[in-house]
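Re: Re: ligand-bound prediction request (bumping)

Still looking for help on this. To restate: I need the protein modeled with flavin-adenine dinucleotide bound, output as structure tokens. Inputs repeated here so nobody has to scroll up.
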Amino acid sequence: MKILVCISNVPDTTTKITFTDNNTQFNTAGVQFILNPYDEIALARAIELTDDGNGSVTVINVGEVSTEPTIRKALAIGATDAVRINAHAHDAWFTAFQIAEYIKANPFDLILTGRESIDYNGSKVAGMLGELLDIPSVSVIKKLNLDGNVATVEREIEGGKEVLTIPLPFVAGCAEGVAEPKIPNMRGIMSARTKPLVVVEAVAVETLSEVISFETPAPRGQVTLIPSTDPAKLVELLHTEAKVI
Amino acid sequence: MPVLIYTENADGKFKKSTFEAVSYARAIANQNNTSLTAISIGDVEAQELAHLGKYGADKVLNVSGAKLKNFVNQAYASVIADAAKKESADIVVLSNSFSGRGLAPRIAVKLQAGIVDGAVSLPDQSNGKFLVKKTAFSGKAFAVVELTSVNKVISLTPNAYKIVEANTAATIEDFNAETKESDFKAMIKEIVRSTDKVSLPDADIVVSGGRGLKGPENWAMVEELADLLGAALACSKPVSDAGWRPHSEHVGQTGIAVSPNLYIAIGISGAIQHLAGVSSSKVIVVINKDADAPFFKVADYGIIGDAFEVVPKLISAIKEYKASA
Ligand SMILES: Cc1cc2nc3c(=O)[nH]c(=O)nc-3n(C[C@H](O)[C@H](O)[C@H](O)COP(=O)(O)OP(=O)(O)OC[C@H]3O[C@@H](n4cnc5c(N)ncnc54)[C@H](O)[C@@H]3O)c2cc1C
Ligand SMILES: Nc1ncnc2c1ncn2[C@@H]1O[C@H](COP(=O)(O)O)[C@@H](O)[C@H]1O
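Reply:
Sorry for the wait, this slipped through. Here it is.
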């Protein structure tokens, strides 16, 4: 069982998001980068699925050398080895294309991603990989179990869930419920330094989209406080002033 | 070249987010002086299909048949891309629903299209460019994305665009789409839908509870409030982590991002990760016993008080309001 987990390097969830250069660049000054929280879930499940010793978990990242601490973190958590495709991850299309090329040369039984990266929130890489490799893909899964070469997955739908069976290989975007993230232990951290991290050069690909600028949401006005003894006032304001009920 | 809109249904009925996406696609068609073709897949009756005209579809391609009755990501993507090619549509629009998230990237690859996921406004084509604003950093910011490709795929964030009635009389045609055998590898075993509840991503009003509610046994009053308002339920991450509520109700940076007209937060402190997923709500009401809770800084209306006293009073007040309305 060879599993590939796609990992992205994203700003820590407590980051205050600001921009520079006339709102065209994300301000990385003082920002701590972490392993995307959903990718931690995917990684944890991959490790569980290979717990019996019959298999391996490779993590792959499209990124510059600055992402290596995050890759080492994934190795410390328990990945077997790692691949870094040496390029700035221009967009989901560029990223998925690079990963698909790697998989074509190095096949895997199962490919896991996070449901989305918390920076650009695309939920795109999993579906693009599926299409590029002509295999099934399922976005936003809450459960993943394997029985031989067939997986049973539970996917989120509005107001419910759907249970699917899918033969290997396929791509799935993991969300909460699939596994509990794992915290690296001392042995993991020590061994992460010596685990293989292969650097591969990127292939050229046409770009289809470009981020032009950023905006921050308009600040909200002052809060109107209502005495706790008078919720009827709130109902009135929601009706007459805010017009939402 | 018409605009193509994929109209998602649930059990044969179109959803509000679908009509939002149709209205949005109609506006894009108008920008480009072209027509709007809708494609529907599954078991949808003619009468329901005709509704698509009301929001601006000129033509509806109807794909039915047992094989495609239920959503199969790969096959649906093939059908939609095939329709785009046959109709020579260069812009494909769909809703950024859970299914939409599975479809959009596959369609984009098939059409070699650039993609904007989670669009929140109409394209700006004023300078000969094609710019679309989308949410980024889990709702903490927006990004303006330029699509430089000939073909384009846009998925629209639910609740980001108002439904507009256009009253076009749509013609309905059966459409025979090309799929491959290998499109049907994934098989649905079971669909579980809680039909009595409002679904969270589409809801106009969301009532959300946090750790301040102390335990799952105290959710009855939250549910009563939600039912009265026709609202969907949500919660903070620790609440779903503790198993008080299902993960599907967890909102925030690592949960579902929502943008309802009204978001009512009860016993939630307003941590930055929570705010990320809810701050684009139009109106925010916060009920918290701590006057210094950060949530009050982004609230429109606030009540400083004990939820166990305030919420029952609020419920009575809404009942009275409803009785008098
Ligand atoms: C990587 C990461 C991702 C995260 N993602 C998310 C996310 O997506 N969504 C999310 O919600 N959180 C997320 N969090 C967690 C977040 O940081 C906060 O811990 C969480 O939002 C706090 O939940 P809470 O407000 O329910 O609980 P608390 O912070 O414990 O707040 C409880 C509040 O209830 C109030 N209260 C107590 N008793 C009463 C009463 N009787 N009446 C009225 N008010 C009362 C208190 O004053 C307090 O403000 C994430 C954290 C990390 C590290
Ligand atoms: N630069 C990257 N390198 C490797 N995997 C990535 C990268 N960016 C995104 N991914 C994977 O794709 C998932 C979805 O990302 P996105 O489509 O950007 O929301 C993430 O959770 C990762 O698993």
